[in-house]
Amino acid sequence: MGRIAKSLLSGTALLAVVAPPARAADLPVKQAVPIEYVRVCTAYGAGFFYIPGTDTCLRVSGRARFEAGYIPVQNRNNSGGDLSQYRGLMRMNFDARTQTGYGSLRAFLRVEAASRTGVFMASGTQQRIGNAFPAVGQDQLGRVQNFIVTDKAFVQFAGLTAGRASSFFDFYAHDYELIGSTAGSDVPSTNLLAFTKTFGEGWSATLSMEDPNFRKNPFYAASFSAPATGPGQSGVNNVFNTAPSPVILGTNADGTANTVVFVDTVQRSRMPDFVGALRYDAPWGSAQLSAAVKDVNIGGFIANSAVSTLTPVAGAAGPVGPGTAAALLAARNLRSGAQTEYGWAVQGGLKLNMPWIAPGDGLYLQGAYGEGALIYTGFSIFTGTYASQLTPVQGAPFAHVLADAVVNPLTGRIDLSKSFTATASFLHYWTPEWRSAFFGSYGEVSFPRGTREAFSLVNNLVGTSAPPTGAGFAVSPILRDNYQIIAGTSLIWSPVKDLDIGIEGTYIGTGPLSGRITDSTRPVTVNGLPAFTEKRYDTTQIRMRVQRDF
Predict the structure, then answer these.
(1) How far is residue 79 from each of residues 56, 75, 116, 448, 538, measured CA to CA in Å?
(2) In this structure, are residues 147 and 131 in contact, taking their beta carbons and an 8 Å threshold?
(3) 292 vs 209: CA distance, rounded Å
(4) Phi, psi (deg, nearest 5) at residue 201
(5) How many other CB atoms are found less than 10 A from the CB of residue 412?
(6) What pTM was estimated for this model as a whole?
(7) 39-43, 47-51, 316-320: which range is least confident on average?
(8) Which residues, 6+ apart, have CB-to-CB distance to 183 below 8 Å?
């Protein structure tokens, strides 16, 4: 066996030596996969690269921000009493562009998320519009808030813009500010469908159909004294699903109401807002004229909501039967409570580049006027939107009335508010690393004459405390015309590119346009009249920021 094994091994070795070698073509070979290298795309500016395997260019960018702020509260007995505020924010941007025979096809996405604390940084405005959600702990409710929101998601193609984007009505939009305090239209994003026509030589025009829900400020209504499930209320949480406002059906000899019915003032999403803008861009700056029209609407009369002092129940106003209420409505020629009026706004803006002062310097000037369009004029930008009345800051002695409209209790018709704002903002570079902004605005909101007096006639039925005449009515908070002054400045250091470290201080002054108003923080009365009244309320806010963009 040993000899046989040796013979076989020797034969195998011999065959290996004398056999011709196999050629490469005779053996199976696995082809290498071509490597797709990321290529720089220069067609759309810095930062773009080709998505491997496509002709689409993509730019990924983002932001990280820390903010801290402080607002003094003069009223130490205020139930809030918070002074400090904080925010940590992240932003991610994705900008995808493809060149086509119709021009550039673009899709832009932006996602923001943040943790915010403090009564001012934890925005009630964003919570009311559904962009944020609150903490519910005993010490955190109203003070801690988080959000994650699709801030931008739109497509642009051949002049078309479709998706979630900034309103084409806006112009300045707080470009130079940290806090964003000055009055003026600045809706970060809305859902829209728009077409822009470029005429050349810097001129362009846009027509835009925009989501109305982001531009509706509620109707004003006097306070309503009712059980937890009274007209317009739902369940033990007292959630208003109809926002009742009174319409007078009968009066006493002195003109005060003895019978009222309530109308549902929740605004429906019946039609889009329509926005038009004419813009000019040149090396010296930009100019824009924009206009908007919107519907202002209410629902019908709330079923079984009529009450009267003529049929008292346990000393309070009692219910009125449907037949009696219908007859009283018919006598006043009020067939249905459902109505629609049309609000509108116009705005003019100018931006001047001022490199002759220092490179990067610029000046914005902007003014707006509107009827039934408070968010378009931006009067409520600092105080807060999506509420009919709010105090400008916690601890303030009175509230601003911020309603788009009001149902006049005497006529039963919609009365639109009027508002205007004027804003100026100047940015100056002291050195390439140091810059400051100086900004200010003034705004007013007013209501038709007689409407305020009409609301005082229903005080015994809807819970207001002011009589229809005399000193009590003169200082009452019912539907007061208001003004607001904002002024501020900042100092920002950018030691390296895309890094900002800055601080900003803001002054806020508010008050009624005429007369005085009851100080709600000192509810003391003498002979039934308020002992303390205010003509004006002044406060300040300081905020610092550290921000890195990439």
Answers:
(1) 55, 9, 20, 34, 19
(2) yes
(3) 10
(4) 55, 30
(5) 22
(6) 0.87
(7) 316-320
(8) 377, 378, 379, 381, 382, 421, 422, 423, 441, 442, 443, 484, 486
